[in-house]
Amino acid sequence: MSQVITDSLRRWIVEQAQAGCTPDSVLQAMRASGWEEATAMQAMEECLRAAVEAPRPVPFVRLLAGCTADAGDRSVQVLAVMQRPAVVVLGGLLTDEECDELVAFAQPRMGRSETVRHDDGTAEVHEARTSQGMFFERGESELIRRLEQRMATLLNWPVDHGEGLQVLHYQPGAQYKPHHDYFDPAAPGTAAVLKRGGQRVGTLIAYLNTPSEGGATTFPDVGLEVAPVKGHAVFFSYDRPHPATLSLHGGAPVTDGHKWVATKWLREGVFT
Ligand code: PD2
Ligand code: ZN
Q: What is the domain partition of the chain in residue ranges?
């Protein structure tokens, strides 16, 4: 039976390459820990191909004087910038009123959050994601149009390349285990998902409240934790669908209180 190339194997190969190991020694180590020759070779090839793949254009925040960024109808504070992974922490993206309105409009429409199935690209309930959620239609109300335009200006990325804004509610103990937001190119279900605008290339997570404790957005590859603060946001991009982008991220468990966020996922083309 042939072995499956897992995300953790891909990450491990990237780590070895970053540590300066030769492809040969990485292959030998894989063989020694039980990977079949064919799988090890295929995984190595895939990682090397990704390393030389042309990076895709991605949304970005243009830093202005005074560590601010232009979001059209308001100026946003740039609190922190990281290059690899490409992460920007933003202050004052949403007003308190806008946060409260998003929660109020979303609340009656919440259901258990789903993840995308690896095999056929359909949605399923999964223990890795224990939040409640809903999607707004793009442009469905004056509030949604205003926020979509603000995010598009801030990220230099057209409104029509964005998926509908998603609101998530984490109850005490709920979390979103570390994952990548891009679609796995090796998964059988990915071709169907890519028909609606191509790959995801960026994620904006806006915090709609300040949880009493826990609920940070984490980037385990680099040990970064972004604290959820009402009106703040974290933006990150990934220029190829590969763990080498270090864009692995998760929502840590909320240990006290609740957490509300709005997520905007950005595609490389027009999302239909
Ligand atoms: O709520 C979060 O912090 C979080 C973490 C990881 C949200 C997402 N991913 C997401 O919506 O993709
Ligand atoms: Zn995510």
A: 7-52, 68-267
Q: Which of 156, 154, 166, 168 is nearest to 228 (CA)?
A: 168
Average pLDDT, the chain: 92
Q: With contact defined as beta carbons under 8 Å apart, do 153 and 186 qualify? A: no
Find out whether the beta carbon of 181 lies less than 6 Å from any atom of ligand 1: yes
Range 68-267 classified under CATH 2.60.120.620: yes
Q: How confident is the model at residue 1 (pLDDT cuts 50, 70, 90)?
A: low
Q: What is the pLDDT of residues 143-179, one digit of tens each?
A: 999 999 999 999 999 999 999 999 999 999 999 999 9
- Alpha helix ranges (H) inside 2-155: 7-18, 23-32, 37-52, 96-106, 142-155
Q: Is the CB of 263 under 6 A from ligand 1?
A: yes
What predicted TM-score, i.e. pTM, was given to this entire model?
Answer: 0.89
Axis crossing angle, helix 37-52 with helix 7-18, rounded to the nearest 10: 60
- The stretches of 79-223 forming alpha helices (DSSP H) are 96-106, 142-155, 190-194
User: Hey, whose CA ends up nearest to atom 11 of ligand 1?
Assistant: 263
State the pLDDT at residue 42: 85
Q: Is pLDDT at 39 greater than 90 in this prediction?
A: no
CA atoms within 13 A of residue 43's CA, in its CB half-sphere: 30
Measuring CA to CA, which residue among 205, 206, 204, 202 is closest to residue 245? 202
Q: The tokens of 125 are what?
A: 């309930």
Residue 199 has pLDDT above 90, yes or no: yes
